[in-house]
Specification:
Helix content is 36%, strand content 13%. The protein is α/β, with parallel strands linked by helices. Helix 2 packs antiparallel against helix 11. Bound molecules: pyridoxal-5'-phosphate.
């Protein structure tokens, strides 16, 4: 791409950006003196769409007006409320409607999925994670291993980059699976690693794991709303993600879950059951025996909280209006511009650990910066919102919905000055 390292150029990119108007659909946090922050933390907590208030207020009003009748007579009835999100969620992650559901939080969904899909035997009980996986995933996997009576020190395998390299090579994952896949029950990788920003090749990893008879699950916390996913075609057995990062649904909002269609009617899979996963035709006859709904909905436990679902719907309506293809196109340019400026303007003080290939990253770049934590603190004092992850990564995520090329330009100039 023909970039130029000037403010004029950044402004021209913004003027030509077909998605530029969407920034105004979000509340941009301000510094103490009232200026808009340079917000690069949409990978950690996405910004609030201005429409969210209206969507949540609608439910508060209907609750006040109708009480329990809101289950059937709210403007968006609560009884089927999660179904309003099904089509949008399926389009977002490239799935069929039967494959997705919004429920619980991410780590809860991860456990529910492992209950059904981590079925260890003495010969095949290992779980493979990437090194530097998000701690919650590691804790969840280790606790499942212990729950089944195995020892995580032997059964939890963490694939690390080659010495001197920062990220994993797909061919090394494939080679490991070819070598040791027969002892692996579950391959559980992040779609995008939260620390390095590396996006994994979900299709190749799924193929390599399935060839060895392993189950494959992905944690898409940093991929949903960031990459143009094609979960159905890529073929993993399950996936989970949260909605408060790139999906802008607000702190702790509800998570997503994907179960591949091939398991939609696998009613003999062990699963933890609750009434909301029961066949909805007979749910209110309160039968004694659990009959799961086909597809991902059959893993629901409880009737879902409507207020956070309303916030998620506000955000998903925006995603659906724009589409992941266009968001991703802008994202590749925006993050490409950030990488370009860092390499030209601060080459000796910053090293990008995220892969240079746009296909192997999303919005986020992880940087090793001269001055480390000190540089991060000075950026923060100057009104930049980015984050620091121990031991040594500054994470910066320009988000195509609300960040601009000018934001990116100003960030790199500030980094030059700290
Ligand atoms: C953000 C994140 C989580 C957080 O889990 P919650 O259950 O939503 O608190 C878990 N795993 C990964 C990979 C994450 O990025």
């Amino acid at each position: 791409m023909d970039f130029e390292p000037t403010l004029d150029f950044a402004r021209r990119m913004d003027a030509d950006d077909p998605l530029a108007a969407y920034r105004d659909h979000f509340h941009i946090p301000k510094t103490a003196d009232g200026a808009e922050c340079l917000y690069f933390t949409g990978n950690s907590l996405g910004l609030q769409p201005k429409a969210t208030r209206e969507y949540v207020l609608e439910e508060l009003e209907d609750w006040a007006r109708l009480g329990v009748e809101g289950h059937f007579h709210a403007r968006h009835p609560w009884m089927p409320y999660h179904e309003f999100l099904t089509g949008q969620t399926a389009r977002l992650v490239g799935a069929r409607p039967v494959e997705v559901v919004v429920m619980n939080s991410l780590t809860v969904n991860l456990h529910l999925m492992m209950v059904s899909f981590y079925r260890p035997t003495p010969d095949r009980h290992r779980i493979v994670l990437e090194a530097h996986a998000f701690p919650s995933d590691r804790y969840a996997a280790a606790s499942q291993i212990r729950f089944h009576g195995y020892d995580p020190s032997e059964a939890l395998v963490e694939l690390a980059p080659r010495p001197g390299e920062d990220t994993l090579r797909t061919e090394d994952i494939e080679a490991f699976l070819e070598r040791e896949g027969e002892s692996v029950a579950l391959v559980l990788l992040g779609g995008v690693n939260y620390y390095t920003g590396q996006a994994f090749d979900l299709e190749r990893i799924t193929r390599a794991a399935h060839a060895q008879g392993c189950v494959v699950g992905f944690d898409l916390a940093h991929a949903a709303g960031n990459l143009a996913l094609r979960l159905h075609d890529d073929g993993p057995d399950f996936a989970v993600w949260c909605s408060y990062k790139y999906l802008n649904a607000g702190p702790g909002s509800l998570a997503g879950c994907f179960v591949h269609e091939r398991h939609a009617r696998a009613f003999d899979l062990p699963r933890f059951a609750g009434w909301w996963g029961h066949d909805k035709a007979t749910r209110f006859q309160m039968p004694e025996t659990f009959t799961p709904m086909p597809g991902a909905e059959g893993w629901q436990l409880s009737n879902p909280p409507i207020l956070p679902l309303a916030a998620l719907r506000a955000s998903m309506d925006l995603f659906d209006a724009v589409g992941m293809t266009r968001l991703r196109e802008k994202s590749v340019r925006l993050t490409g511009y950030l990488a370009y400026l860092l390499e030209r303007r601060v080459p000796d003080r910053v090293r990008i650990i995220t892969p240079a290939d746009p296909a192997q990253r999303g919005a986020q770049l992880s940087l090793r910066v001269a001055g480390g934590r000190d540089a991060f603190e000075r950026l923060t004092a100057a009104g930049v919102v980015c984050d620091w992850r121990e031991p040594d990564a500054l994470r910066v995520a320009p988000v195509p919905f609300y960040n601009t090329f000018t934001d990116v330009y100003r960030f790199v100039e500030m980094l030059r000055n700290v």
